[in-house]
Amino acid sequence: AVVSTQSTGDEAEAGRKRLIEMSKEFKKAAPDETRKCVAPLMKAFQGEIDSLTKRSKGAEASFLSLYRKIGDAPDPTPVLDQAIANRQKLSSMTDLELEKKQ
CB–CB of 12/78 below 8 Å? Predict the structure, then answer.
């Protein structure tokens, strides 16, 4: 999951750079009037892309932080197994006490 997150982030960054290059090429090739008409739309798209990039980086950082914390935590299986065994013993002892009283 961590490797996938990193490669996806790299792909997104490469895609973003390609879009920037394409935008620059469009600005060079398009007539002034076309550029003026399209500029607000391109600016809005760029703002949205920047916002999504910021959001995804924040989400990935949170995920990695949580992943590291969980990865560093000890395996709870032995403690849970012991708790189950203790509960079974307690249940058996309670059953024996009830039988003695009867």
Answer: no
